[in-house]
Amino acid sequence: MKPDYSLDDLRLFWLVARSGSYKKASQESGVPLSTLSRRISVLEDALTVRLLERNAHRVTLTESGEEYLDRCGPLFDELNDITHQLYSAKQSAKGKLHVAAPINLAQQWFVSLLSRFMLQYPQIDIELTISNKNIDLIENHVDLAIRVGEMTTPDWIVRHLTDIPFCLCMSTAMATNSAVSLSHPQTLIHYPVVVSKPVQHWRLIHSVTQEEFNFDVAAKARFKVDDLHTAMNAVLAGIGIGLFPVTMVAPYIAAGKLQIVLPEWQGRKRPVYLLYRDRVNMPHRLRLLIDFILEQIPAEIHYRGQSC
Question: Is the pTM value of this prediction over 0.70?
Answer without folding.
Answer: no
